[in-house]
């Protein structure tokens, strides 16, 4: 399952990193605690969170995550967007809650 | 190959938090080290940088890289850690509400440093500061039988 299919299926809004949507997604992790995400997410995961400040980009980059999905219509801060654009990390915005987003992506990947 | 550089980290500056780790990650990549070594070194570096920013007045991160390993030393002028064993426990945190709101202070920083390094040393004095040394072995091809910790860490990963 690549990122583009997830974007389409969940009707996600692409805020940056639109040229990296062909990447394969291997799973996901949900969390707002950065060190928890560092400890438990894996390469190629999508990260579902409500955090919008620029340190989420550092975490996604450190763990080589496929994308950051902000839930409930949270918008990335301006410097977050700049940094993510520079580092080529897609930031996607979902209108739905983290629970809905995680459930749908899980079904897409593993069903 | 041998590379050394020391970076200073400003306490309380969350805007710049992570910059040193990003720079170090770039340096290690440019040195041509294996992806896994770069990734693990960048993670332990990031966690130590965030700790300096979250708790200390100022600090320093010293990078040493050679063909055998990457070593990250983080030293700060800060409050120090009264009970290191307790601080090492996953989930234990003394972060302020403001720090936690940003998603830091999960109480996993020190355990992540240990988890992603092959060799971890910490020493701290209350009222003076904290020193952490982490070594990430550059063992891309073969696990060395003399370092069983590397083996278990890789399996857990």
Question: Which SSEs are present, and which pair or pack?
Answer:
The complex is a heterodimer of chains A (111) and B (157).
Chain A: H1 3-10, E1 13-16, E2 27-30, H2 34-40, E3 45-49, H3 55-62, E4 67-70, H4 78-87, E5 91-93, H5 98-110
Parallel strand pairs in A: 2-3, 3-4, 4-5
Antiparallel strand pairs in A: 1-5
Helix pairs in contact in A: 2-3, 3-4
Chain B: E1 2-10, H1 19-30, H2 35-55, E2 58-66, E3 69-77, H3 84-88, H4 97-101, H5 109-116, E4 119-125, E5 129-137, H6 148-156
Antiparallel strand pairs in B: 1-2, 2-3, 3-5, 4-5
Helix pairs in contact in B: 1-2, 2-5
Task: Write a brief caption for the model.
The complex is a heterodimer of chains A (111) and B (157). Chain A has helices at residues 3-10, 34-40, 55-62, 78-87, 98-110, and strands at residues 13-16, 27-30, 45-49, 67-70, 91-93.
Number of helices of chain B: 6
- Radius of gyration of chain B equals 15 Å
Q: Topology as H/E string of chain B?
A: EHHEEHHHEEH
Q: Give the helix level of chain B as a range of percent.
A: 25-40%
Oligomeric assembly: heterodimer
Mean pLDDT across residues of chain A: 96
Share of β-strand residues of chain A? 15-25%
Record the strand order, biggest sheet of chain B: 1-2-3-5-4
SS elements, strand count of chain A:
5
Q: What would your notes on this structure say?
A:
- The complex is a heterodimer of chains A (111) and B (157).
- Chain A has 111 residues and is an alpha/beta fold.
- Chain A has a single domain (3-110), classed as Udp-n-acetylmuramoylalanyl-d-glutamate--2,6- Diaminopimelate Ligase, Chain: A, domain 1.
- Chain A contains five helices and five strands; from the N terminus they run αββαβαβαβα.
- Chain A has helices spanning 3-10, 34-40, 55-62, 78-87, 98-110, and strands at residues 13-16, 27-30, 45-49, 67-70, 91-93.
- A five-stranded mixed β-sheet of chain A has the order 1-5-4-3-2, sandwiched between helices.
- In chain A, α2 links the parallel β2 and β3 (45-49).
- In chain A, α2 (34-40) packs parallel to α3 (55-62) and α3 (55-62) runs parallel beside α4 (78-87).
- The longest helix of chain A is centred in the last third of the chain and has 13 residues, at 98-110.
- Chain B is α+β, with helices and mostly antiparallel strands.
- Helices cover 38% and strands 27% of the residues of chain B.
- Chain B has six helices and five strands; from the N terminus they run βααββαααββα.
- Chain B has helices at residues 19-30, 35-55, 84-88, 97-101, 109-116, 148-156; strands spanning 2-10, 58-66, 69-77, 119-125, 129-137.
- Chain B has a five-stranded antiparallel β-sheet, with helices on one face.
- In chain B, a hairpin with a 2-residue loop joins β2 (58-66) and β3.
- In chain B, α1 packs antiparallel against α2 (35-55) and α2 packs antiparallel against α5 (109-116).
- The model of chain B is unreliable at 148-157 (pLDDT under 50).
- Classes of the chains: A alpha/beta (111), B alpha+beta (157).
- Chain A binds chain B through residues 32-36, 38-39, 49, 51, 53-56, 58-59, 61-64, 79, and chain B through 14-15, 17-18, 21-22, 25, 39, 42-43, 46-47, 50, 102-109, 111-112, 115.
């Amino acid at each position: 399952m690549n990122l583009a299919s997830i974007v389409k299926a969940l009707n996600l809004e692409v805020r940056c990193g639109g040229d990296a949507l062909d990447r394969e997604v291997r799973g996901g992790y949900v969390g707002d605690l950065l060190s928890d995400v560092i400890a438990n997410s894996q390469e190629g995961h999508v990260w579902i969170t409500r955090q919008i400040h620029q340190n989420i980009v550092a975490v996604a980059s450190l763990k080589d995550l496929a994308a950051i999905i902000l839930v409930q219509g949270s918008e990335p801060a301006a410097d977050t967007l700049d940094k993510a654009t520079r580092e080529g990390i897609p930031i996607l915005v979902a209108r739905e809650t983290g629970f809905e987003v995680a459930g749908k992506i899980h079904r897409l990947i593993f069903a | 190959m041998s590379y050394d550089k020391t970076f200073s980290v400003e306490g309380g500056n969350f805007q710049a938090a992570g910059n040193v780790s990003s720079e170090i990650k770039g340096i290690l990549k440019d040195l041509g080290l294996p992806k896994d070594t770069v990734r693990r070194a960048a993670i332990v570096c990031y966690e130590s940088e965030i700790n300096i920013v979250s708790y200390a007045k100022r600090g320093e991160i010293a990078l040493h890289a050679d063909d055998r390993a990457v070593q990250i030393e983080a030293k700060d002028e800060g409050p120090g850690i009264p009970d290191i064993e307790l601080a090492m426990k996953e989930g234990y945190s003394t972060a302020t509400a403001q720090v936690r709101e940003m998603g830091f202070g999960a109480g996993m920083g020190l355990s992540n440093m240990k988890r992603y390094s092959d060799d971890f040393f910490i020493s701290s004095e209350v009222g003076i500061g904290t020193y952490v040394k982490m070594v990430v072995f550059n063992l891309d091809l073969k696990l060395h039988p003399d370092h069983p910790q590397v083996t278990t860490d890789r399996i857990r990963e």
